[in-house]
Amino acid sequence: MTDNLTRDAFLGGRVQLYQPRVGYRAGVDPVLLAASVAATPGQSVLDLGCGVGAAILCLSARVPGLSLTGVEVQEDYAMLARRNAGDRVEVITADISDLPLDLRQRQFDHVLTNPPYFNRAASRAAFDAGREAAHGESAPLAEWVRVAAKRLKPKGYAHIIHRAERLPEILGAWPGGMGSIEVLPLSARAGRMAERVIVRARKNGRGAFKLHAPLVLHLGACHTRDAEDYCPQVKAVLRDGAALEF
């Protein structure tokens, strides 16, 4: 390990990731996103904006036998994803708005994405280039939604995690033919407004829209001690690699 990298354990050590010591570092969100994907062995999965591989490798640890592809625009993060994944994931360095032709000719059973959270027309850019590329939009959020839908097979599922305040943009950006939309709000503590949402939609889905009760991440009204206080369901996802069913 070089001085500018750390090796971090996810899912109780089942996934080990090299990450930059300074810059964008994977946290809880990609792990929750991966847990929301109801994939089965033999299916194909595309991760748009895969970073160092956190989401797709957590999914791979839970569901064996998947065909996995990740797209990452930053070459240094793509290289780390390849290092972390070995031969388990095909990692392509590309912008989601300009995917290679061979990838544009493929479709997947599942597409997952954790797009940048901040529209820089209304927020300040980060000083670190890696952190800025992960958090600040270059392509609009609607483009991420459109590309995710386009890369799906008929009856395939798209899965997105994002800030709750941007849910209207996500819902409004789904192209025609996307249905069976479900939204799982994520709330830090009981009684608080949701800060994140996981959105799932199905290509050619016909199911009614579902807004689920919030998933509360932490026990208690506030953080009172220097120890983790995840709710049992969330702890099972983060530490044991359990699925997040909704």
From TrEMBL:
Could you list this entry's UniProt keywords, alphabetically sorted. Methyltransferase, S-adenosyl-L-methionine, Transferase
Can you name one GO molecular function term for this protein?
methyltransferase activity
Query: Could you name the domain of life of the organism this protein comes from?
Result: Bacteria
Transferase listed as a keyword: yes
Q: Does the keyword Endoplasmic reticulum apply?
A: no
Give the protein name, as stated in the record: Methyltransferase domain-containing protein
Q: Name one Pfam family in it.
A: MTS
One GO term under biological process is: methylation
PANTHER family in the record:
TRNA1(VAL) (ADENINE(37)-N6)-METHYLTRANSFERASE
Task: List residues of the Methyltransferase small domain.
Answer: 32-123
